[in-house]
Amino acid sequence: MSRRISEVRMESTVGQTVVLRGWIHRLRKQKEKAFIILRDDRGDIIQAVSPSNLTENLTIESSVEITGRLERDDRAIEGGYEVKVNKIVVFNIAASDYPIGEYQSDEILLDYRHLALRTRKLINVGKIRGSLLKYSRGWFDRKDWIEVTPPLLVKGAVEGGATLFEVKYFDNRAYLSQSSQLYLESMIYSLGPVWTISPSFRAERSRTVRHLAEFSHLEAEIPWIGLSELMSIQEDLINHIITMIKTFNKKELNFLSTDALSKLEEISTPFQKISYEEAIDTLRSMECKIKDQNGSERIIEWGDDLNTESERELTKDKTSPIFVTGYPMKIKPFYVKQDPSNESIGLAVDLLAPYGFGEISGGGIREDDWSKLRARIEQSNLKIDDYLWYLDLRKYGSVPHGGFGLGIERFLRWILNFDDIKDVTLFPRTMSRILP
Known about the structure:
This protein has helices spanning 5-8, 77-80, 106-111, 113-116, 120-142, 181-191, 227-248, 250-256, 260-265, 276-285, 308-315, 370-379, 388-395, 408-416, and strands at residues 17-29, 33-39, 45-51, 63-72, 81-92, 146-147, 153-154, 166-169, 172-176, 194-201, 214-223, 272-275, 289-291, 297-299, 322-325, 338-339, 342-346, 348-353, 358-365, 401-407. It is α+β, with helices and mostly antiparallel strands. Strands 6-10-11-20-19-18-15-12 form an eight-stranded mixed sheet, sandwiched between helices. A hairpin with a 2-residue loop joins strand 8 and strand 9 (172-176).
């Protein structure tokens, strides 16, 4: 019976006959024998030595079952275990023109992403992605939050109409969801604290290393909450995920980055909290510049949204994330609640990752007053009819409530210390890429 490589690569199995199934990751043929690096379905590899006559037709990525004796050899890769092969069963001989070599350009790896997923880098990225989702779910389960699945086809915008993907919906028009927030809000009245991990879509014409047209979105909403408690929830969730990854994913972290683990060890709680006003003052002291609508550069000032460059400047010397609170209402979406002590300020908060990785999470307290919310919808030039159901939530038993959205890929990019967000996405969707 075949086993996984991780199940046999141990001292107690040395000298035993093992059966392993997988793919030829690397192959070097000599006159009398051939050296095989076998990769199984979890991405683990082991060295195998076979008589050359058993490998005559084999090629890279051929799928096989090998049988042989496990031996100790300190020269062998991945722990010093090697299989002395006496039998090979072939499932499929891969074509000899396999396009992914040991060294390839980024564009080739994107063009052949369906095959590049077999590279050890993306295998380890996939494992940490899976772990991140598992640890997130574990945190919410322990806190007794209910997981829900909101719709992805919607009629209205959440983050601004300019970034909506339009789709034909029978004889009507619909859009791909930018966020599940509005639907999560409707569920807190019957299910209490709720959360989801769903795809979100943003038609942003951006080619930066931190933007995707489709991304994985962890979103949560909770009734009867204030801004301070909402920040504590995010801090606890993120600290839990980081702690679990440091503990149980060291192997993958060390393979992917030489310093990712050491940087994660530097994180401390509580996370620093600064106001938007403090952030602007700091950036102005650095003479941080932004571009206005005409493309002209000027020093950032109060009322400007924080862009990629300004977020980088604020966090490039930090070792832990920081919260920025109290943004001007004019730069925040229609659903943000006004600060009762200063109505020009919104009860909103962004979480910025350290080392210049920028925003990974955004949230705040939602407007629970029917008349104020309706006025904001109208001021945002949105169609009231598309939001009547959302306004109903304020007519029938509204309560103070809030939530946040965490971008999984942005979070993972910071954890792995990667330059480009496409490298943490198994099938990235950007302005110029919809295949494979």
